Amino acid sequence: MGMPVTVSGVDADAAAIVFAWLRRVDGLFSTYRPDSEVCRLDRGELAVGDADPLVREVLERCERLRIETGGYFDARASGRLDPSGLVKGWAVDRAAALLEARGARRFCVSAGGDLVVRGGPWRVGVRHPRRRRRLAAALTVSDAAVATSGAYERGQHVLDPHTRRPARGARSVTVVGPDLGTADAYATAAFAMGAAGPAWTAGFDGYEAMTVIGVRVLSTPGFARLCGGSVSAGLRPSPAWRSPTRAGCPA
Amino acid sequence: MRRALPVLVVTVVAVVLLAGFDTEPPVTLNPNSALRPIATPRAIERPSATPAPPGSKTGTGPVVATPFSVIQVRATLTDGRLTGVETIALSGDGPHTEALNARAEPILREEALRAGSADIDVVSGATSTSESWIESLRAAIRAARRG
Fold first, then answer.
1. Is B127 at the interface with chain A, CB within 8 A?
2. How far is CA A243 from CA A127, A132, A151, A195, B117, in A?
3. Nearest chain A CA: its distance from B133 CA (Å)
4. Residue B50 has what pLDDT?
5. What is the rounded CA–CA span in Å between residue B139 and residue B147?
6. A89 vs A58, A110, A187, CA distance in Å?
7. The pTM is what?
């Protein structure tokens, strides 16, 4: 999937099962491999009815998301079939289920900064959008998924096409909830909405969010509670966070 | 007359502000949802907001659709080095933003962004923006090199 995946809290055999699963996902869903089922579906060489049940499951969920979002989420928005926006979170959710089926009770699977924790409590830091070695928030969660969408590149401006000025867009959006596929999709959507994102996150059901806009943090009351009352409640003003110990290897 | 002039200016400004005020309430299907159907992508042809320094070249990447927005990236090269990147959002923010934020304001908590540290087990946060954005940026850089 082209991103670092780390698994912590399980033995090497269990981690190997996760990476084998992710390789299988890549083989089915990669938009870079011409022989993947997604690419064959896109070229019309494979009928949806003949596709792997996993592919059909993801495509059906993409379709539900498309309807739920009034056409905003569309796996064919680019003109080609690309369900990648859902696949990463979905694959990590499924990886967590595989580990639980093996009896694992306390573990974490993180794919490119989007993660699932089981058991707990886990202390999850939210990367500061501008200062890479600092945190903007620290959550305490159990049995949860946390996804963050952000633009960290310096000099990037999102222009509002109506005003021709940089939109007062978000620097990062973090969503926490039970399912990583959904949390990831919500974080991406809220980030893309720019200044309208925080208002949208206030209507979530079962998910909580924090949005960094400029030097402000807007969070849902539930998100603030998970941080100890306010998003910065769990932070110390010390210079840098200690890099957490991780087990695992790149997928 | 000296006193009348500032008053006149203030009045003109007030009239202009009133004229620009949208009296129509925003219409959305779900009052809690800021989602709107995707806008028809259209390429923006306009001079850059900040004039490029002499000796620099600008290139624009293709229109790229992400699951939630349609974007285009413009890159500026000066003496072969990347000196500026703009992301042009072709869909995303809309006129309902202010009304939605006003509605959400009593619900959301606001505080100042702080940078700190904590004893944590794991970090959430993307290490890069979406592949679509990077793809568009690469194309913009190629276009700038050609131009």
1. yes
2. 12, 12, 21, 32, 10
3. 10
4. 53
5. 12
6. 11, 10, 11
7. 0.65
